[in-house]
Amino acid sequence: MGTETEGKDGTTYANSDSSAEKAQQNDSNTPAPKLPLPAAAKAIVARVETVLNLQGAPPGDGGIGGSRDEKKEFREDAKIWNYYLEEAERKAKEQADLWNTGLDSLLIFAGLFAGIVSSFVIDARSDLQTDSDQRLLTQIREVLAQGSVNPPERISVASNWTSGLWVLSLYTTLFSAIMGVLAKAWLAKFIPATTRRESKDAYNRYKLDRQSERWHLKEVLILVPLLVQIAAFLFLVGLVLQSHADNPTIGRTLLAFCISGAAIYFVMTCIPFIVPSSPFNTPLSELCDGLFSRKKEEEGSPSAPFKRDMNEGLGEIFYTKLIKSPKPAHVDEAFLEVALPVFHEKWTEELCKKDAPQVLLTRLRQRATARTDDALERDETLCNHLLALLKFAQYQTLDTVLRTSLEPGNPLHRWNELPEALRPLLFGLRAQVIMLLNMKDLPKSPPRPGIPDTPTDFNMNELPDRPWDMAFQEIRSTHRLHFVLGACRGLAEGSPNLEND
Fold this sequence. Notes:
Blueprint: E1 4-6, E2 12-14, H1 19-27, H2 39-55, H3 79-125, H4 133-146, H5 157-190, H6 199-214, H7 217-246, H8 248-274, H9 283-300, H10 310-323, H11 328-339, H12 345-353, H13 356-369, H14 375-392, H15 399-405, H16 423-438, H17 477-493, H18 496-500
Antiparallel strand pairs: 1-2
Helix pairs in contact: 2-17, 3-5, 3-6, 3-7, 3-11, 5-7, 6-10, 7-8, 7-9, 8-9, 11-14, 13-14, 14-16, 16-17
Region (Disordered): 1-36
InterPro entries: DUF6535
Organism: Ephemerocybe angulata
C-alpha cells in the first residue's frame, strides 16, 4: 500500500497515516487470542470492542489513553482553539473598531455641542433673575422715559421652560460624553492582547463574548449616541419656545423645520423594519432591533446559559463554533479531534445527541466527491472522518443517520466507494453499520416513498469485487483493528453475503 517509517519509540507508521491514526496506533496494540472459528469470532469481537471502548476512556477507568488530567476533558494545544480564536478575535476587533469610530465622532460632536448649549444656558440665566443687570437697565430706561417705574414683571413660563430644557440638554450631553469615555475603556478590555492559543485562552474569549451579550454591551453602546440626539432634541424645543416668545413668526418657522426633521428621523428609524436591505437607520432602530431580535430568540429557541465550568464552555465552543462553522477547514479539524482516541467519551455522546453525526456525514460526502490536487490531504481528511463516524456508530440511537449513510450517493453505499488505501477502514465501518441496523432491538425507520429500504447485507453486485481479498493484502496498522472487528462481527452474526465476505 505505502511505505512505512519508524518512530522514536519503535512504532511503525505509514507515511499517509493521519494524526488520528498515529495517535490511535500508540493506544491500541492489544492482540486478539488465537482460537478456532467460529467460536473464536465472538471472542475476538468482544476483545476488540473492549479495546475500542478503552481507547477513549477517561483516566481512572483503566483506559489505555493514560495520564490525562481528570479536570481537562479537551486537549489544551489542539489546533481547533487557534481556529476559534482567530475567528472570534477577528469579529470582536471589527465590531470594536466600528464602535470606536462612532464613539470618536460622538465625543467630538458632544464637546462642540456642550460649548454651544453652555453659552445659551448662561444667557438664559438673566431672564430668570429679578435683580439682573438687564432688568435694572430696563427700569432705568423707564424712569428716564416716563418718570416712574412700573411694577416688576413676573418671570414668564416660556423663560422657565426654555432655561430648564437647555440645562437638561447640557446635562445629557455631558453625561453621554462621560459614558463615551467609559465605553472606550470597556472596548479596550473587550479585545485583550494575547498570543497564546490554548484551550484556556479560547474559554476566556468565550467568557468575554458571552458576558458582553449577557450585560447587553451592544445596546448600552447604542444608548450613548442616542443620548446626544435626545440632548439636541431638548435644545431645539427650548430654542423654539424662546424664538416664539421673541417673534411668533420666527418661532412658527423654526417649529415647522423641527417637525420636518423629526418626520425624517422617524422614517429613517422605521425603514430598516420595512426594508431590511436599507442602509439608513438610527440608534433607536438599532436598539429596537437588538431588543426585539433577542426577545424573539429567547421565545423561539432559548439560548444556552453561560457555562461557568471551563469544560462545559469548551464543549459549547466545540459544537457551536467549530462543528457548526461555515468554514470546511474548521469542521474537518473538529472531527479530527473527535477521531482521536483521547477524545472524551462524554463529549462523543453529547455530540450524538445533537446533529453532529449528520454534519459529519454531509461533510464526508462533500469531501469524497470534491476534486482536489492534494490527494494525500484528502485521504487523510477522509480517514479522520471515517474514524469519527466509527465512534458515533457505537450509539444505536443514530438510526436515521446510519440508514442515510448507506443510501446511494453516500460513501458508505458500497465498500469500495473511497480510494483503495481507505477501503479496509470503510469495509469495517460499513459492516459495523449494517450489523447495528440488523439488531432486533433497534427501532426501524418508517418507509419513505420512492426510497428503497436500507440494505441489511452486502449487495450481490459487490461480491464479484472480492472484498475478502483485502484480508490477504497489506493493511495499515491502524486500520487492521476496525477491519478485523467488522469481519469478525460479520462472520459471527452477519447476513449471508456479509458472512461469506
